Batch of 2 targets.
Target 1
Amino acid sequence: MENKRIFLSAPHMGSKELDFVHEAFASNYIAPVGPQLESFEREFAAKVNTKYAAAVSSGTAALHLLLRYAGVGPEDEVFCSTFTFVGSANPVVYLGARPVFIDSDEQSWNMNPELLVGEIEKRARKNRLPKAVVLVHLYGQPADIDPIKKICNKYEIALLEDAAEALGAQYKGKSPGTFGMAGFFSFNGNKIITTSGGGMIVSEDKQLIEKVKFWATQAKEPSPHYEHTEIGYNYRLSNVLAAIGRGQLRVLDDRVKKKRCIFRRYRDGLEDLPGVHFMPEPDFARSSRWLTCLTIDPDDAGIDRDRVIGRLEENNIEARPTWKPMHLQPLYQRCEVIGGHVAEQLFRQGICLPSGTGMNRKDQGRIIRIIRKCWEL
Ligand SMILES: *Cc1c(COP(=O)(O)O)cnc(C)c1O
């Protein structure tokens, strides 16, 4: 079929996932915790080169646990990236705190370190420092972590990294998510690897990892009658899903290679079109290119982003606008925003192209031809 649906980033299983799931069934560890889960945590920590990991039911749950560990509570403020998915801000509100949104820079599309430093210094003079900073690494691209880490260290603000979209990327040779107090990843259906749903917290801090695991299992004290002194959640990843994750981890490097190759083919096929600008890759970053993103400047292109998405949809191809900034969301429009114009522009002009690693060269060629045709009208 010439016209089969092409998705933005469909799940792509390797050859080992089912073997591990069979192991889980054979051992009858269908219950949440079990040997697959422990292996997945150990293997994941080794993969991103950090000491400890805790597998949970989603990336959003991971951030909820981390913000609580950072002591975030009612009346507190948490600085977040405005250009992101809503999952990197909602848990701030679960805890009764308020997000303050920081604009992106043009070189990484992620949090602008200069804006952040300026705002924190200003707050320090007024004695109104945020309790935490949630730093997102969007579309597989690391933010400029060093200056952000430096200012957080200076004022003892907890730095939490939202690396949900950035597994397999590198910042100065190391995995994003491993620089702050803790970081987290997501295994939601369209992420670079998936367990159908799930998340992972990583940290060098053993105490942190033990505490979040404790909260994630209803804060159950070690006693046979289920003693409770703290409020907890049902946030642990299932042993069966961890088995899928173990298989997926074994194909991660290959997926990154493929994602970068998909990006290069789009760039080679489209970069000469007037008004087209691909998401840059700064010197400090090796992006996983989870999704190939670009902007279309309608003044130079003579066509806008929405028309291109529409043309692709007519051909049964799923492309999407880039994330709508949080400060433009009805949910968060009353929150404070520092800057905002860069993220607004990236949203107005940005498009994410189908980047599934299961997509073949022919499919991608078809997408490129359809996009090029938009410029000939
Ligand atoms: C997917 C995602 C999350 C949330 O992860 P879930 O596993 O879907 O809860 C958080 N932040 C970003 C940037 C994401 O893309």
Target 2
Amino acid sequence: MNMNPSGWRPEIVNPEKGADHATFEIFRTSTGNKALMLEEALIFEIGSDETTGVDLPEIGAGANRLGGLSRERPIGLPGLSEPETVRHYTRLSRQNYAIDLGLFPLGSCTMKHNPRLNEKMARLPGFADIHPLQPVETVQGALGVINELAFWLIDLTGMHGVAMSPKAGAHGELCGMLAIKAALEARGEGHRKVVLVPESAHGTNPATAAFAGFTVEDIPATAEGRVDTAALKARLGPDIAAVMITNPNTCGLFERDLKTISDAVHAAGGYVYCDGANFNAIVGRVRPGDLGIDAMHINLHKTFSTPHGGGGPGSGPVVLSEALSPFGPLPFTERYADGHITLVEEDTVGERHPDSFGRMTAFHGQMGMFTRALTYILSHGGDGLRQVAEDAVLNANYVLRSLEDVLDAPFAGSGPCMHEALFSDDNLADGFSTLDVAKGLIDEGFHPMTVYFPLVVHGAMLVEPTETESKAALDQFIGALRSVAERAKAGDASLKSAPHFAPRARLDETQAARKPVLTWREPPLAQAAE
Ligand SMILES: *Cc1c(COP(=O)(O)O)cnc(C)c1O
């Protein structure tokens, strides 16, 4: 019935429902485990109230000092011994995918290897065991790391100053836009309220502009996937506060007109924010400062190899032009006329950073990320960083050219891509979508690429291999994606219910995002007894 180029044939349990609704079932085990991939219940559903991992002394009689407010029912915390606890979290962790397991092709996210040397440096007690409220004389080494990293970021971007404290790319965007707002207000032009954002932008760009109190207007893209410069110029005027442009953009293309755009925006009295999430594709080769950019965040967890993680341990320093630097938040690092770079920590000296829009974080930022990023920079050096960009671009072009015969590559005709290869769902069989390809890739042992982003491409699949993958790893990934794409083109119905080998298959992601169930309730007794 179905062509199956990969040769893999799941057992059809329910063929009479017809191809569209056929459900495929792999052999089920009595435990629900799939080979060494173990099922795991919620922590509240395992263990017992009687169990604990620690040995607590008996509470003596009459020790109640709660003034009559003592608890009437058990507190309901999970009760697990140490081995049960370790197994619970280890089993859960195995249901996830990690950069230490294999290639992580998420476009726009730059999931590169996290070098172990970075980890070693970040764990040195002089960096790891300090506190931001320690006397400054006792943390000179840590301040030195922040300052040296700041120096590199300023140097690599050709900018004037850098705010080190923002905690992520999106937080950095907010920092840049607040600096732009402060600069406009200082000029008496707070009435400039419109921020222009290209259609292909990451969702955080319009969200940030709106959050900072601006109105967002779209700029269309050209057929070749770049910003429509003519349309942008035509919209410039006295109400424009700024444009936010990503370069290289989210279609994986370099915005060649950026200098022309910056000049036009400046001439019209606006500022240029550059989303620097893709800086890894140009680091060591292009200095954003030379393109007339006023503010740009740098995701240390993308370009400079620090771990990504749930919005927690990120770091998104923001480099600023000379025009915007006075408005950046404290602490702030700046290059002075004689060339030296200094960290301005407090505004006690007033005249040194009097126009700052304020503070974004209580202290200096993410020390652990600073140490890791500086280690990465120093271990590569200037020439090594340039090679990072070159290899990232080379790897992405290898992926693009290896798959363009099987997947539609809408901008492949625009020339080489930068660090990301972009495909669409255009030539899949009727009824087959990008989602099916992504789910099929999970069965092949890969985390899927970024899907349905950027929005300018129908059913987008954005693959970013990064420079840290070997040719062997790329070939394996390309082979897997080719096989799944061929199944989707041939209308292989087994793909509609993929993944078959993962602990969970197709979740209702919208429902999970919109109506997350964040509390656990004890099941009613009858049900619990089952
Ligand atoms: C990752 C990314 C962001 C947001 O950065 P976070 O560090 O995740 O907040 C913004 N823009 C683009 C293009 C990105 O890829």
